[in-house]
Amino acid sequence: MNISFTDVIPDVETYHDLRASVDWAVFCKEQSEKALKNSCYCVVAKDGDNAVAMGRVVGDGMYYTIVDVIVRPQYQGQKIGSSIVNRLVDQINAGIPDGGRTCIQLIAAPGKEGFYIKQGFSVLPDESSGPALRKVIYT
């Protein structure tokens, strides 16, 4: 196995295939295309020509959210996900101006909190932040 990492936005078919590989809901094509296009940063891992993992970042320069960290089940536990998260964090850090500050957040899949703690993230609430909240809208 020879895993390569590229800073590229995947096509929508690859994105949908990766989401389906971990039993995540697949958004409609129109939403997926817009979301991918509006990514600030994106990393795709490939084994040969096959996409096996990805992660992306959305944000505004002060606040960033890491989303869609997906590793196909047969490739999990091989440090591919941590490599993706670290590359995304490095890309965010490279864009912070001198004297600047940024906040990186994410919502972990159930049972994956420990993975993100190992990457330096804190579980909320903590001493400086309340609990994370979310609202999902279906049409």
Number of strands: 5
CATH architecture: 3-Layer(aba) Sandwich
- Compute the gyration radius: what is it? 15 Å
Q: Rough shape?
A: globular
- Largest sheet report: 5 strands, mixed
How much helical structure, as a percent, in the residues?
A: 25-40%
Show unreliable segments: none
Oligomer: single chain
Mean pLDDT: 96
H-E string: EHHEEEHEH
End-to-end distance: 42 Å
Order of the strands making up the biggest sheet: 1-2-3-4-5
Number of helices: 4
Task: Domain count, please report it.
Answer: 1
Find the CATH superfamily.
Gcn5-related N-acetyltransferase (GNAT)
User: What is the level 1 CATH name?
Assistant: Alpha Beta
* Share in β-strands: 15-25%
Structure description:
22% of the residues are buried. The protein has one domain (3-118): Aminopeptidase (3-Layer(aba) Sandwich). The longest helix is centred in the middle third of the chain and has 15 residues, at 80-94. With 139 residues, it is of the alpha+beta class. Helices cover 29% and strands 24% of the residues. The chain is built from four helices and five strands.
Features:
139 residues, alpha+beta, Aminopeptidase, five-stranded mixed beta sheet, 24% strand
